[in-house]
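Quick one: co-fold with guanosine-5'-diphosphate.
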Amino acid sequence: MKSMLPPVRKDRIITQLPGCFSPDAALHTKDGFHWQVKAACQGQKKGAVGFNVAKVIVVGDVAVGKTCLISRFCKDSFDKNYKATIGVDFEMERFEVLGVPFSLQLWDTAGQERFKCIASTYYRGAQAIILVFDLSSVGSLDNARQWLEDAMKENDPSSVLLFLVGTKKDLSSTEHLANMEQEAIRLSEEIRAEYWAVSAKSGEGIRDLFFRVASLTFEANVLAELEKSGCRRVGDIIRLTENSKEEEKTTKRKANCC
Ligand code: GDP
Ligand code: MG
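Sure, here it is.
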């Protein structure tokens, strides 16, 4: 049956793996999609590319800019007047990655973060977590660790991609930004997150960030599906971990020998 959905917007089509923000704090720094993902998408291998929605949760202190981050990307708008988020569950953003339809479900909190009582259904089953902090507030970076801890109570660490995103870049002086980035990159390394600095006001970095989130979650989903369907051996991992160099070598070895 033909899909009833309108075609994906031309500016949501991803044909190449977008680059990271900083190679010092990236989930991986390879310059293309995993070869097995490319092969699966080319052949539209049955089952492997069928898992096409990823839940992405956005967490962080109140007023760090979570809602503005999502609005800038999904609606290309910025509202400088603060309005607490009420009653919003998620925005669905459609992409096409390597010719395959793929959607991100971007979950924004409905203001519960004020009371630190976010329901477990909000956190549960996330494929990616965007930990947001305000680049002009050291406290909000310190609290990112606590947000992560809460979110991970409901998720499996081996299957979640983490992004640590500093917002309001437009407000920071170069010197202040450099200090904050040093701290943020240190935390990213510790929690194995990919670091980004963006501004919802100017739009800087927003599209690149979400394209990267979409691409890496898509890649992880397809690899997981291939693994489940037995097309892929366990251990051929794409996530960058402490042993990333080793993994890259392993992946290359496998690419050469298969
Ligand atoms: P949330 O509580 O984390 O969802 O925060 P909001 O997205 O509602 O933003 C809180 C406040 O920060 C609002 O007044 C926004 O206008 C402001 N804000 C958000 N992002 C930016 C940004 O990139 N630059 C500047 N200058 N202000 C921002
Ligand atoms: Mg909000």
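If it helps, Residues 206-228 form the longest helix (23 residues).
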